[in-house]
Amino acid sequence: MKIVYKNILPILLLFCIPSFGQMAQKMNPKYFGTYKTKDQKNCPISLVITSVGKEYHYKIKIKERVKEGRLKITKTKDEVYLTFTGLLQKKPKDIVEGQYIDNSVVIQNYGNAMNSFTVFSECNEKYIELLKEKKN
Length: 136
What we know:
With 136 residues, the chain is mainly beta. It has one domain: Beta Barrel (Lipocalin), CATH 2.40.128. It has one helix and eight strands; from the N terminus they run H-E-E-E-E-E-E-E-E. Strands 1-2-3-4-5-6-7-8 form an eight-stranded antiparallel barrel. Strand 2 and strand 3 form a beta hairpin. It is globular. The protein starts with a helix and ends with a strand.
């Protein structure tokens, strides 16, 4: 019997260790849908949030560019933050984050002299608000 335990224990550890410390993210359908800027002429951005398996995914279109990737949703006591993996700011190259507020996604588009960055150079707005479209 000792030989069996010696062989089984490493195999069990191999499957169990990667899942420690990671809670399964519950999918909340309230985030799913299409979000767009009000001013599609001057700031043409659309965002679609869906799920693939047990993960949130996004597809964002800015003029002719399309980016897709995983979306991480982090909830604090009073706020919900979105991290768009694979979507990088123009300058410096860093991951784009936003905040979910009342059926909209708000992304700070550029910084200031002390913290200079640009997310979407196609838009001149400091804060880009993407409003969720209502289903018909």
